[in-house]
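TEACHING EXERCISE
Course module: macromolecular assemblies
Task: Read the component lines below, then compare them to the predicted structure of the full complex.
Student: A.B.
Group: 4
Components provided:
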Amino acid sequence: MKARVHVMLKNGVLDPQGEAVRHALGALGFGGVEGVRQGKVIELDLADGTSEETVKEMCEKLLANTVIESYTIELA
Amino acid sequence: MKAAVIVFPGSNCDRDLAVAFERAGADVTMVWHKDTDLPEGIDIVGIPGGFSFGDYLRCGAIAANSPICRSVVKHAERGGYALGICNGFQILTETGLLPGALMRNAGLKFICKQVGLNVATADSAFTAGYSAGQEVTIPVAHHDGNYNADADLLARLQGEDRVAFTYTENPNGSDGDIAGILSDNRRVLGMMPHPERAVDPRHGGADGSAMFRSLMDQLVSA
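Instructor-supplied answer key:
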């Protein structure tokens, strides 16, 4: 089975990289880009039967820094 | 004073930190990240700068979960001293020993230069050799030194006199101009600037020496 973890900076935490991407899009002539947030996607290949609870523990312990980041888990 | 300096794959200031401790008169042991225990009788653990584990995932995240870091956390929880510099500061926030987080510099560039710091408190074993309000010059070299603290944390750090150093001219976007903070028992210091790179006039300045001398004074008499 696979799990896909999305890690994003929490709302309210300024994202300097997202801001830089927004400026670059503007410089390329794309109007109307009001905000860009950059995060990461982590794909996990897991033994069948791994619980969502276990993936959540992985996120809390390592994959996300919950001081500044939030995460969502997709199991497939 | 017995000091341990932790070495991770990718650490690059470990020798400098060891030399800074040695020059202050400390007995220094280098400790590999896979070791599970600190040597007996360690007074202070130094967590050096560098790029532990290639900064993969997040700066300091993987190092913070290494076997030795579990011992470092126990050492700090027992009231032991720890000094984390640059990547070491990032590692200390990732272990939860220090609050907040270090993010990408607001200007997105790696910054390597001398910066001015204000000593915000002299009330710690690390800063007792300075006077509060003193301005010192210490180099920074980092890409992720933008200290993030929400309004509550910032108020708490300032209210409890736990901000150790602030930048005279904020180079990286840090909240509250914060360059270094203390734990609530004042025995763990994390800072982005490198005092160990300023312990000899030939470094271009020796404003960092007072930190190591003051640690020596405080920990030997303790």
